[in-house]
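Technical annex, item 7. During the second reporting period the consortium partners agreed on a shared format for inverse folding records so that results from different sites could be compared directly. Each record opens with the tokenized structure and is followed by the designed sequence. A conforming record, contributed by the partner at site C, is shown below for reference.
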């Protein structure tokens, strides 16, 4: 079984009630369940996590090295601020797919720059929770996992 780390940054624990016009009505638990179903379909194992503490996210990235086959990350607001997350992702030597629920390019200018995109395999944004599913599907192709 190919194992992926799927990590979510700050305020994403509030999904469902947080700006639903922008982020939709699904909760993080809904998205976690969707990712669990997708992982099973694509023959992957997924560790799904969220934190509001940047150091914790960095620790998870560090321990993924050699243990996971890739990282799916929605860095949330840290996308636009964190050199540390970019450096940790590079140090992991793992392929990375960046996901955003909203289309950040239709939003405020400060959301147009991502520290992660330049080191990612690819970026999915604006497709809501389906973006996570698509990220997992792409990893299944990259890793040659077997669809169930
Ligand atoms: C987000 C977009 C970010 O700009 C924002 O800070 C978030 C969520 C998204 O999933 O659309 O918290 O990453």
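Designed sequence (site C submission):
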């Amino acid at each position: 079984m190919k194992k992926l780390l799927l990590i979510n940054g700050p305020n994403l624990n509030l999904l469902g009630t947080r700006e639903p016009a922008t982020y939709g009505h699904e909760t993080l638990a809904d998205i976690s369940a969707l990712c669990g179903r997708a992982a099973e379909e694509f023959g992957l194992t997924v560790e799904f996590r969220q934190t509001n503490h940047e150091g914790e996210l960095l620790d998870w990235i560090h321990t993924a090295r050699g243990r996971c086959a890739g990282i799916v990350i929605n860095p949330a607001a840290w996308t636009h601020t964190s050199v540390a997350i970019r450096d940790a992702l590079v140090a992991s030597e793992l392929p990375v797919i960046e996901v955003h629920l909203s289309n950040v390019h239709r939003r405020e200018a400060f959301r147009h720059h991502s520290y992660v995109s330049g080191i990612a395999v690819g970026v999915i944004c604006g497709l809501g929770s389906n973006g996570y599913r698509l990220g997992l599907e792409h990893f299944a192709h990259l890793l040659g996992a077997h669809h169930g």
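The mean pLDDT is 96. The beta strands are 2-8, 44-50, 70-74, 96-100, 122-125. All partners now use this format for quarterly exchanges.
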